[in-house]
Amino acid sequence: MRHGSIPGARGHVRPLTLLGDPALDAPCREVTDFGPELARLVEDLFATMYAAQGVGLAANQVGSPLRVFVYDCPDDEEVRHLGHLVNPRLVEAGGVSVRGPEGCLSLPGLEAGVERHDHAVVEGVTVTGEPVTVRGSGFFARCLQHECDHLEGRLYPDRLTGWRRRRVLGQAAKAPWSIGRRTDRPEPGARGLEPGA
What pLDDT, on the 0 to 100 scale, is given for residue 108? Predict the structure, then answer.
């Protein structure tokens, strides 16, 4: 294999932003510069995702406010999906709604049952500006929706209500990595956010 053909091979592992960091709360900006800085960010995202043993990673999870994410994720048939999206838009989320275990590299060691659609279509462009459409089902559809949420400033606890939400935020508050903010954020209904929206 020639050097650099593996995503992230030339990237650097960046520190992850964790629950409570304001970088995770704000919607990300559209990418307008498709130069070497963007290519470096994508490589670093892959390197960081692999180092943390994740299946997806959004740019704001390493402190960059740009609309970019990477993924290396299987679907329910164990088909591997590998790629990146710049300026992605979730254009379709449908099929049945399934509650399944979901974790996040910004909440290390925690997971909760989150409802997601089992089919998703995301449109965006590549690091060189080429249009791309990514279709996912099952676990990969969950990954696509999760990463699109990140770029809107939303984490999976924001999709939870009641005891599920209280439990994961309580665990986060006690976690050794906790930075002590955001656990008092109101439930989705209190902010006009509907669960599963």
Answer: 96
Amino acid found at 31: V
pLDDT tens for each residue of 149-187: 999 999 999 999 999 999 999 999 999 998 754 444 444
Cβ atoms of 115 and 195 within 8 Å: the answer is yes
pLDDT, tens digit (0-9, with 9 covering 90-100), for 17-65: 999 999 999 999 999 999 999 999 999 999 999 999 999 999 999 999 9
Q: How many residues does the chain have?
A: 197
Question: Hey, which residues are catalytic here?
Answer: 147
DSSP the chain: --TT-STTTT--PPPPP-TT-GGGTSPPBPP---SHHHHHHHHHHHHHHHHTT-SEEEGGGGT--BSEEEEEEE-TT--EEEEEEEEEEEEEEEEEEEEEEEE-TTSTT-EEEEEEEEEEEEEEE-TTS-EEEEEEEHHHHHHHHHHHHHHTT--GGGG--HHHHHHHHHHHHHSTT--S-STTPPPGGGGTPPTT-
Report field, pTM of the whole predicted structure over 0.90: no
For the record, the structure tokens of 165 come out as: 């939400």
Residue type, 33: D
CA dihedral for 66, 24, 159, 80, sign (positive or negative): positive
Q: How far is CA 114 from the centre of its chain?
A: 14
